[in-house]
Amino acid sequence: MNSRLKAAATLVLAACVASTSFASDATPPAKKSHKKAAATKGPSVEDQIQQLRQDMQGQINQLKEDLANKDAQLKQAQQQAADAQAAAAKAQQATSDQEQAASQNTAAVTALQSTVTDLKANASSLAITVSDESSKIRKEMESPEALHYKGITLSPAGSFLAAETVWRQGATGGDINTAFTGVPLDHADAAQMSEFQGTGRQSRLALKATGKLASATLTGYYEMDWLGTGITSNNNQSNSYVLRMRQLWADARFNNGWDFSAGQGWSLATETTKGLQRTSEILPSVIDPQYTAGFVWTRQYGARVTRDFGNKFFVGISAENAETLNPAGANLPTNLLIGSPGTGGGLYNSTANYSFNLTPDFVAKLAVEPGWGHWELFGIGRSFRDRIYPTAAGATPYNDTVWGGGVGGGFRGPLLNKKVSIGLKGLWGQGVGRYGSSTIADVTLRPDATISPLHGFSALSTLEFTPTPRLSAYINYGGDYIGRNWAVDPVSGKNVGYGTYDTDMSGCNIESTTGGSFSPSTPAKCKGNNKDVQEFTAGYSYNFYKGPKGTFRYGLQYALFRRDLWSGNGGVTNPGGGAKGTDNMFWTQVRYYLP
C-alpha cells in the first residue's frame, strides 16, 4: 500500500512540474504591460513547488491516514470474519454435537425400547420357565421317574406285573416256559392230551442305579423273577437259581469309549441294538420265557471289555461262565469223569450235572452301525475236558481236552419310516449247542471216551411291524440243528455217538400198548437223538395305556413247533425210523409296566 501511495505522489509532483514548465515556455506578454506584470509578480516556482509538496504531503498523509483507517477497518473486518467463522464453526460443531447427541439419544431410546421388550420377553419366558420348573418339581415330587440317593439315580424301569396263560395242543408237563426238546412226538401219550396253565411267575422286578462322574458313567443293575425251580436250577444256559437272579452286574462306561463290565447278564453273543452296551440287548418279541428256536443267547456270569469308536464301530471281548451239556448219544462209554451233580455243603443243585470246566467260554464281537441298521460278527471259543479211565489192564487215567467254538453274525434294520423292522441272525460251529435256545447238545463221545464236539447251527429270522405307537406285531421263524457224529466200536461193533444208524426206532409211530390193553408210557423203542427243533411264531401286543402312569398291555402269541429225531433202524414196521413231534401253542399276557 505504501509503494502505491508513493507512486501516486510522484505522478502528481511530475504533473505539477510539467505544468510549470509549460507555463514558463509560453509567449511573453507585450512590453506595455511588462511593468504591470512585474508589479503584480506572484509566488515563485519554488514556492509553488513547496506549496505543492505541502499539498501533496497533506494528501499523502491523508491517504496514509485513510489507508491506516482502511487497514484498521480491514483488520477489524477480518477479525470479525474470523470471529464469525469461528462462531459459525462453533455453531456447526454445536449443531453436530446436538445431532450426535440426538442420534445417541435416539439409539439410547431404541436400545432402551429393545431392552424393555427383552425384559418383557425375559419376564414372560422366566414366568413360563418358573411355571415349567414348578410343574417339573411338582411332578418329580408327586410322581418321580427316578429316585436320587447321594448322587445316584435309582430307577425301577423294566419292572412289570404279569398275568399270563399258555395252551398247548400236545402237553409238555411244563409251565409257561417251553422245553423245546420236550415237545411230544406225534404218537407219544402226551401228544394226545392238551394242557392249559396260567401263572404270574414271569412278573419281574428291576432296579438300576446310575452315578455320573466327569469322565465316566457307573451303572449297577439287578433283575429278578419267579421262574426258577429249585430242583431244576443249573448252569446250562441262564444260571437261574431261586430266587431267580436274571441279571446282576456292574458297568463303568468312560467318555473316551471304553466300557468295563462284570456280573451275570446277557452273553456278549446276544444281539444288541446300540453298540455293545448292556441293556440294549434285543430279544424276540414273544411271551414264552424260553424265547424262540434259533435265538442265540445265554444269560450267565461274564466279564467284558468293549470299545466304542465314534458311535459307528464297536469291538468287545468277554470271558463267560462255561458249562458243557452232558454228552449225548447212543452206546456211549462210561469210563470217564466229565462232571458231577451238586454236592452237599455246596450251592449247586444235587439233581443237576455240572461240568469240570478247564476255561471260561471266550466271546469276541464287532458291531457296525453305518447309518442303516445294526450289523454284527462274533466268534465263540470253548474248551471241553474229561478224565478217561482206560479199560486196558495197567493203563493210566488221563485228561482229554478238546477245543470247539463257532462263528456267527446278523443284522437288524428299519424300513418304511421305522414302521417295519427286519432281522436275521445265526451261529455255526462245533460244540455250540448251549447257545441255541433249544439247548439240544454240545458234545458226544468216541468209543475210547474222548470228547467229540457236535456240529451245530442256529438261525432266526424276524419281521416286526409297528403301524401305530400302541400296536406292534411280529413274525419269527427259526431253528436249532445238531448234526450226526458217530463211530463204530471195534469191540462191540455198535455205533457209538450221536444220531447213530442202528438205534431202534420201531416204536416211534405207535402209541404204547401192553398185552392189548392201553398202558401210558413213553415209546420204548424210540430213542433217536434230536436232529432239530423248528418254530414259527406270530403275535402282537397292544398298549391300552402308555404314559406317565406306566404301561398297561395285552398280548397274544401263537407258535407252531416241529421236533425231528435222527432216523435209525426202524425195523419191519417202521423202515428208516424217522420220528417227529408237532405242537400248536397259544399264549396270552396282561402286563402292567412301571413307568
TrEMBL record:
Residues 1-23 form the signal peptide. Residues 46-94 form a coiled coil. Keywords: Coiled coil, Signal. It comes from the Bacteria. Residues 23-45 are annotated as: Disordered. The keyword Signal applies. This is Porin. It comes from Occallatibacter riparius.
